[in-house]
Amino acid sequence: MLLDEDPATLIHHTIGNFNIHPDKVAIGRINESLSTLQQARDLRVRESENALRKLSRNLQTLTTQHHETISSHNSTDHASHIVELDTQKFRVAKAASDLEIDGERLEQELDGLKGRLQQLELQGDEGDEVTKAKRELEDPTILKLKVYRSLGIDVDPDKAGTYNKATIRNTQKGDVHVVNIDAKFSRFFYANYFWQSMG
pLDDT tens for residues 14-65? Predict the structure, then answer.
């Protein structure tokens, strides 16, 4: 047998070493926080818009009253009151603008987090190329298969994961030999047979 341990156990241990679930949970929490902030932002914008409309209506009413009763009021005091209302209106409009800018920034951050989540989902449990290369260096079975492949020997597993067939390619002679590996023959026997087929 090529493997000293059960392939299913090896695969289970390998998959167990790569877990992106905490990253997904963290991104989920961030998305929830962003959603909450967006809702709060929308609420503040609506409140500011309502306040702005209310102040606009008040300003219009006071302006109309001013024109109707200008003769019976002190023009200086009335002008000061109008200026004060204009100042409040400007502050509310600026607050609404700031909230709009914050909302756009949060949307950009959300897009970035969605992109990161998509990258993690595409990588899957195996991780990126660097992670897979590191795993190959640490997995003795993968190292053995790479050595065999460099010699022109491809070892294929069956449906149960048992490596019981080898394809030997002799590029110099242009020959291809398919060998079914049987446990009743020793490793020494197959090693000699592989070398003779490659010679």
Answer: 776 767 778 788 888 998 988 999 999 999 989 999 999 999 999 999 888 8
Classify each residue of 95-109 as buried b or exposed e, where b means 16 or more C-beta atoms within 10 Å of its C-beta. bbeebeeebeebeee
Q: d(Cα 153, Cα 124) in Å, to the nearest integer?
A: 29
If you search the block for the tokens 């005091």, which residue do you land on?
Answer: 77
Handedness of CA 3, 6, 7, 12 (dihedral sign): negative
Contact predicate 102/83, CB 8 Å: no
CA angle 199, 167, 13 (to 5 degrees): 120
Cα dihedral 154, 160, 164, 166 in deg (nearest 10): -20
Three state DSSP letters for 70-134: HHHCCHHHHHHHHHHHHHHHHHHHHHHHHHHHHHHHHHHHHHHHHHHHHHHHHHHHHCCHHHHHH
Give the whole-angstrom CA distance, residue 130 versus residue 97.
45
Residue 139 and residue 7 in contact, taking contact as beta carbons nearer than 8 Å? no
- Burial call 68-84: b when 16+ CB within 10 Å, e when fewer: eeeeeeeeeebeeeeee
Please, are residues 171 and 149 in contact by the beta-carbon 8 Å criterion? Answer: no
Kindly report, residue by residue over 93-142, the tens digit of the pLDDT: 999 999 999 888 888 888 888 888 887 777 665 555 666 666 655 567 77
